[in-house]
Amino acid sequence: FVKDFLGKKPFTSKEAYSSYKQEIVRIQHQGLSQLNSQIASAKSRAGSLTDDVATIKSNLSKETDEEVKKVQKAELKLKDKQLFDCRTLLEELLSKKTKVSKSPITFEEFTAIMEALPDKLDKVQSTTELNAHISKIFLNFTVDTKNVVSYTLNKPFDGLISKDFSNCEPNRDATQGFIAPQGLFRLFLTF
């Protein structure tokens, strides 16, 4: 059933690509908003830590009491580590923002990925591995004695299916996790 279903190329229409692109743009905007907020917070924290380090260094240079200097040096070491960690996080967030800002895959790339599904499934040897791949696309099947009577697709496939190929209602969920645009289908289709 799965090979026949995927052989009909239900996900390769312009309509499916348009749906994919709309969803990716929505996810991008949501993700960019979250990342921008995290970046602003990390920049603010880094600025505050930089000020703290400068203040401690200034106080340390004026201090004469060895016990106080010892405490200030420990505090300086802690603040330097926190500043390093904060800057590392900021670099990671900026890198993620660059990746998220990329355009969605082209129609040709989208079609190539979707058309390759049946061939990829043919190459899988293990039943366990085959089940793992199929479960990325299908949520469940209802079967009678020999045939699949109905099925439900997993996200994001449920929103991509052409009504010609499915009698299942697509059920979009706004709480879907954030996934970078280039990785949306590759996440589901890593064989």
Notes on the structure:
This protein has 191 residues and is mainly α. Helix content is 64%, strand content 6%.
Task: Explain the layout of strands and helices.
Layout lengths: L1 H6 L6 H49 L3 H35 L6 H9 L1 H7 L3 H11 E6 L4 E6 L30 H5 L3
Antiparallel strand pairs: 1-2
Helix pairs in contact: 2-3
Number of strands: 2
Low-confidence blocks of residues: 162-191
Query: Approximately how much beta-strand content do the residues carry?
Result: 5-15%
Helix content: 55-70%
Largest sheet, strands/sense/barrel: 2 strands, antiparallel
The radius of gyration is 26 Å
Please tell me what the overall shape is.
elongated
Q: Please give the count of helices.
A: 7
How widely separated are the two ends? 19 Å
Structural class: mainly alpha
What is the residue-averaged pLDDT?
76
- Helix and strand pattern: HHHHHHEEH
Which strand order spans the largest sheet, edge to edge or round the barrel?
A: 1-2
Labels describing this entry:
about 190 residues; mainly alpha; 2 strands; about 65% helix; disordered C terminus
Gist of the model:
The chain has helices at 2-7, 14-62, 66-100, 107-115, 117-123, 127-137, 184-188, and strands at 138-143, 148-153.
